[in-house]
Amino acid sequence: MADGSANLDKASEDQICIGVLALQGAFREHIAHFRKLPGVTATEVKKKEDLKDLDGLVIPGGESTTMALIAERWGLIPELRSWAKGGRPIWGTCAGLIFLADRASGQKEGGQALLGGLDCKVQRNFFGAQINSFESQLPVPKQLQPFEHGPAKYRAMFIRAPAIMEAGPSVEILSEYRLSAEEQAVTEGRECVAVAVRSKQLLATSFHPELTEELRWHETFVDMVRRHQQGDKPGVNGRSPSSASLNSMSSQRSQSDGLRPADMPVYGTRDRL
Predict the structure, then answer these.
(1) Which of 29, 79, 183, 208 is catalytic?
(2) Which end of the chain is more exposed for a tag (fewer CB within 10 A), N or C?
């Protein structure tokens, strides 16, 4: 009996709760993915009281300006900023990446409220409008290798997606998108942009893993949450590459890595540039 009771206590301790900001955007898809993972519950966050007792928080994709306006109207911005600065795990996807960034360009007139905490500069709608949305196959970063029960590349869906143009030394770059020759021509020769980063307890992706069957990014965030509970500090092997080093890193890779396959559009066959 004593052993059985101990096992129940251990199972209860291992259970974690992930909250997903549910103001607008793809929050239901995130919740569905998390609920596929053992020992994880997921719930909607619509008011500041919903943040209580969460182990991790996801800020999903959507229309970033609309989400910011709703969050301000409902008095959530101070609470979300507290989460961002309190050292607790947060994952931002697409619009959520913009929320977490310390700096952003391409914003609408008057800008929008940023939570901050992620030492990077993002460019809003870097990949174009809704009709320019696309998919790509990107190499699985080594940080996802513990959860490698799938192919060596993952499906990345970009929908009016931002890109990370600059990253500070505390930011670890997990995935990059290699620009085509046409894209390089309008970005002053830049060869690649970062599309997934991690810094301490913050994870951010330009793309939407929740809109695919890919679970490894959700598993990675759950692992971050569990490590945070155990008091482990996220490891960064050496100095993280800044935006200045992105081109040199990319030049060492195959020219085909990260390029969008012509037969994988989300909206029609129109080229982005």
Answers:
(1) 208
(2) N
